[in-house]
Design brief:
Helix content of chain B: 40-55%
Helix content of chain A: 40-55%
Largest sheet of chain B: 2 strands, antiparallel
Oligomer: heterodimer
Shape of chain A: globular
Order of helices and strands of chain B: EEHHHHHHHH
Order of helices and strands of chain A: HHEHEHHEEEHEEEHHEEHHHHHHH
Radius of gyration of chain B: 21 Å
Number of strands of chain B: 2
Distance between the termini of chain A: 41 Å
Largest interface: A-B, 41 and 38 residues
Chain lengths: ~375, ~170
C-alpha cells in the first residue's frame, strides 16, 4: 500500500491534466453515496458498529482493480495537517476529516478516484477529471460501483433508490459538479444574474471549498441538487447544458471586456502580475484573487498559455496545510503568508511581464477559440 | 385570516395531507420565514408538519407522525430525525415510510427512483415496476367500468405474482 508522502508528492492528475474547456472549467467531479444494508449509518452507529461496517467495506474497496497499490488509511492514523492536505486536494471532505474512529480513506495512486469509508454515508465515492468531463468521471465511478455491488450488499429500495443517511441524497446518490473560473462575469457584474438563473433551474452554486464558503478567486462550483426522480443521464445532461451555457457567457464577457475596456483588463492583469511577482507577504485571499487574474491573462493571451496551468498548481500549493507540509513544520499565519509569497515568486520567476500592448495574441493563432 | 402562530394577518396558506387528514395552516410573512416554509428543500416544512411547531398549529400532527415508533433495526425514532436530520439506518426508510414521503415533497424532482439499479436486483425491480403499472391500469379500468379489460389486467397481475412466489402455489 502507498504511503501518505508518496501519494502527496505529486500533484493529482486532474490538477495538471488538460481537459476540454480547461480555460473556464477547471475540474469535473462525480460523487456517489452508497450504504450497506442492515448496518447503522455512520453518524448513528456506535463505535463497534462503525468498526464492523469498516471491516466489511475496506477489503472490498481495496480489492478494486483501480485500487492496486492505492493509499488506504484510517483517518485516526493521520495527523491533522495530513488530513487537511487531503481536504485541500478534495480527496476527503471536511466532515470526513473530523470523523473519529472507524473512518478511512482509500485513494487511487493518481488521485482521480477517492473513496471515503464511514463519512456521512458508509461509502462516498468520488471521481475527479480535469476540464469538462462529467460523463467520463461518471462512467469511471459507475464501473467501480458495479464492482462493489458484487461484493457488498448495498441498501436499495425500489421506490427510493439508493438509501442514504440524509434524504437529500436519496435515489441516485449522485452529486455531479464542475468548478468554473468566471472572472469576466464577476468583473462585468453579471455574475449575480447568471448564478441566480442557474439556481432557478434547481442547480446549486457554491464557492471554492463547498457548502457555506464564500467564493474566492472567482471560482464557482455548480452541482445538481435533486437526486430522486431523475436518471443519472438526465441529471448529467442538464448540468452539462447549463455549464456549457455559463462557459459561453463567460467567454462572451471576456471578449466584451477586451473590446470595451482593454485598459481596465490590462491594468488588472498587470497589477496582479506585479503583486504576485514582488510580494513578500501575501495572505491566501489576496493570492487567490491575483492568481485568478493571472489565469485570465494566460487565457486572453497577455501571458503565455501555460500560465493557466501554473496558476492551477499554485491554487492548491498555497493553501495552509500544503504550506505546512512543504515546510515540514507547523506555521503561524504570519509565517504562512511569507512562505506563500516565496513559493509564488519562485514559480513565477521566469514569467515575463504581460504584453499589455497586445489586444489578443490568441486570436492571431487561433481564430476560433470558442470550443463550445 | 389570521396567522395560526402569532395572530397577525396571514399571507401564506398551506394545505397538506398529514396521515390521511387534510391540515390547513395560515401564516404571516414573518412566521412563514421563521418556520422555513419558503425553504426550497422542503425539509423545514416537513419538520413543521412532523410536529415541531408549538401552539395551536396542527395539534394532531405530532401524534399522527410521531407515534413513538422505533426502527426495529437501529432503534431510531422520529424525535432523533428532528434532532439530527439524518436517518439511523436503511431500514428507517421502511419504518417511517409515510413520514419520508411527506418529507420528500419539494426536496427532489420526483418521488420515485428512475436511475441505476444494482444488477442483482434488476429482475425484482422490473417486476415491481411492472406490477405497479398494471395495478394503476386496473384502477383506471375499474373506474371507467371497463370490466373486460380489468379482468385481463387482474389475471396478468396474478400471473406475475404467482411466478414471483412459486412456493405459495403449493
Amino acid at each position: 500500500m502507498m504511503r501518505f508522502t508518496t501519494l502527496i508528492k505529486n500533484p493529482a492528475d486532474w490538477m495538471t491534466g488538460e481537459g476540454a474547456d480547461n480555460a473556464i472549467v477547471l475540474t469535473s467531479r462525480i460523487r456517489l453515496a452508497r450504504n450497506l444494508r442492515g448496518e447503522a449509518f455512520p453518524g448513528w452507529a456506535k463505535k463497534e458498529q462503525r468498526r464492523h461496517a469498516l471491516e466489511i467495506m475496506r477489503p472490498a474497496v481495496e480489492a478494486l482493480p483501480c485500487m492496486k497499490d492505492a493509499f488506504s488509511q484510517e483517518l485516526d492514523d493521520l495527523n491533522s495537517v495530513q488530513k487537511q492536505v487531503l481536504v485541500e486536494r478534495h480527496l476527503i471532505s471536511r466532515e470526513h476529516a473530523a470523523r473519529g474512529e472507524g473512518s478511512a480513506a482509500v485513494i487511487e495512486r493518481r488521485q482521480s478516484i477517492a473513496l471515503m469509508l464511514n463519512e456521512e454515508d458508509h461509502l462516498r465515492m468520488q471521481a475527479i477529471r480535469p476540464g469538462m468531463s462529467l460523463r467520463g468521471a461518471f462512467e469511471a465511478l459507475s464501473a467501480i460501483d458495479d464492482d462493489l455491488e458484487n461484493s457488498l450488499e448495498l441498501a436499495f429500495d425500489h421506490e427510493l433508490g439508493y438509501l442514504t443517511t440524509c434524504p437529500t441524497n436519496l435515489g441516485t446518490g449522485l452529486r455531479a459538479s464542475a468548478m468554473l473560473h468566471l472572472p469576466a462575469l464577476v468583473l462585468s457584474d453579471q455574475i449575480g444574474q447568471v448564478l441566480q438563473a442557474v439556481n432557478k433551474i434547481g442547480l446549486a452554486v457554491r464557492g471554492l471549498y463547498g457548502e457555506g464558503t464564500e467564493s474566492l478567486g472567482n471560482l464557482f462550483q455548480i452541482s445538481n441538487q435533486s437526486t430522486l426522480g431523475e436518471s443519472e443521464e438526465t441529471i448529467l445532461r442538464r448540468l452539462e447544458r447549463v455549464i456549457a451555457q455559463v462557459a459561453t457567457h463567460e467567454r462572451n464577457a471576456r471578449d466584451k471586456l477586451l473590446e470595451d475596456d482593454p485598459a481596465m483588463v490590462s491594468d488588472k492583469i498587470g497589477r496582479a502580475y506585479g503583486v504576485l511577482r514582488h510580494a513578500w507577504i501575501i495572505d491566501s485571499k489576496e493570492a487567490l484573487t491575483h492568481l485568478s487574474l493571472l489565469r485570465l491573462g494566460g487565457d486572453l493571451g497577455f501571458l503565455p498559455q501555460d500560465t493557466v496551468k501554473t496558476c492551477d498548481a499554485l491554487l492548491m500549493d498555497i493553501q495552509p496545510a500544503h504550506l505546512q507540509l512543504h515546510s515540514g513544520r507547523k506555521l503561524s499565519p504570519e509565517e504562512r503568508d511569507s512562505i506563500r509569497a516565496e513559493i509564488v515568486r519562485g514559480r513565477l520567476q521566469s514569467l515575463e511581464a504581460p504584453d499589455i500592448r497586445s489586444t489578443r495574441k490568441k486570436d492571431e493563432s487561433d481564430p476560433d477559440p470558442e470550443i463550445l | 385570516m389570521d396567522c395560526d402562530i402569532c395572530g397577525k394577518h396571514a399571507k401564506v396558506h398551506l394545505t397538506q395531507l398529514v396521515g390521511g387528514q387534510i391540515k390547513k395552516i395560515a401564516l404571516c410573512d414573518d412566521c412563514a420565514k421563521e418556520k422555513g416554509v419558503t425553504d426550497p428543500t422542503g425539509f423545514a416544512l416537513a419538520e413543521m408538519l412532523l410536529g415541531k411547531t408549538p401552539g395551536k398549529v396542527v395539534p394532531s400532527a405530532p401524534t399522527v407522525a410521531g407515534s413513538g415508533r422505533r426502527c426495529p433495526n437501529c432503534g431510531f425514532t422520529l424525535e432523533d430525525l428532528r434532532r439530527i436530520r439524518r436517518f439511523g439506518c436503511a431500514d428507517c426508510y421502511d419504518t417511517f415510510r409515510e413520514d419520508v414521503n411527506q418529507m420528500l415533497r419539494g426536496m427532489h424532482k420526483g418521488f420515485k427512483h428512475c436511475g441505476k439499479v444494482p444488477a442483482g436486483m434488476m429482475e425484482l425491480h422490473e417486476r415491481t415496476q411492472r406490477l405497479e403499472e398494471l395495478r394503476g391500469k386496473l384502477d383506471q379500468a375499474i373506474t371507467s367500468e371497463n370490466y373486460e379489460e380489468a379482468a385481463g389486467l387482474r389475471d396478468e397481475i396474478r400471473q406475475i405474482e404467482v411466478r414471483a412466489t412459486p412456493e405459495s402455489n403449493d
